[in-house]
Design brief:
- A hairpin with a 4-residue loop joins strand 5 and strand 6.
- This protein has a domain of about 140 residues: Rossmann fold, CATH 3.40.50.
- The strands form two sheets. It has a six-stranded parallel sheet with strand order 1-10-7-4-2-3.
- With about 210 residues, it is of the alpha/beta class.
- About 40% of the residues lie in helices and about 20% in strands.
Length: about 210
């Protein structure tokens, strides 16, 4: 990565971490995927119960594999025939892992969901929530974060899942009411009432969608 891009990301991350702090959330900056993995593992004690949504960023830094192969109670919903049971177990987990569809440079997180299991777990339930966020998801304000979530993240995800929505065909949001829409619930996390519950690891890389 170009040295100027790295410097820009470091400075932007510092601003974002200050914003998170002002919102009662913790922020960390990782210069690489490997460093992000180390920070995350240092935060999670062995023996912890852990669940997650479908966050690609968590997989991309190797965190999900490390937890599956380590001394943890990893709740892997792909191994459950009853997916609803696995999703419900997430609400009582020690740690919930996620990424976000977008976030602002002053620490507001934006997430869109189809079934609401992810946004509801972020909002309430698990004792701790750890976000893995690539610097490509940082936006100037809530409006631009919403636009990113709806016009970048959502179309790519519906294409990934093979869903039949206007954005899967045109690549941009139509504010549709398609039966396949994944834009059913929108969660804007602007403050955490519980200190230390939400942590965000900003990664000097392009992660997720």
């Amino acid at each position: 990565m170009d040295a100027n891009v790295i410097k820009r990301n470091e400075l932007l991350a510092q601003k974002t971490i200050e914003g998170l702090k002002s919102r009662n959330m913790e922020g960390y900056y990782a210069a690489s995927r490997e460093e992000a993995l180390k920070i995350a593992l240092d935060m999670i004690p062995e023996g912890s119960s852990i669940s997650m949504g479908g966050g690609m960023s968590v997989h991309e830094i190797g965190l999900s594999d490390a937890l599956k192969n380590g001394n943890y109670n990893f709740i892997d919903r792909d191994e459950y025939e009853d997916k609803r049971k696995a999703m419900l177990l997430a609400y009582d987990a020690d740690y919930y892992l996620a990424s976000c569809n977008a976030m602002t440079d002053d620490g507001v997180l934006v997430n869109i969901d189809g079934n609401s299991n992810r946004v509801s777990a972020i909002a309430q339930g698990p004792k701790h929530v750890i976000f893995i966020v690539g610097m490509n998801k940082i936006c100037n304000d809530v409006d631009s974060a919403m636009k990113r979530a709806r016009n970048v993240a959502a179309p790519i995800n519906v294409q990934r899942f093979g869903l039949n929505t206007p954005c899967s065909k045109k690549g941009t949001c139509f504010n549709c009411k398609s039966p396949d829409t994944i834009c059913c619930q929108i969660l804007i996390t602007r403050f955490s009432r519980h200190p230390g519950r939400i942590s965000v690891i900003l990664v000097n890389d392009n992660l997720g969608f």
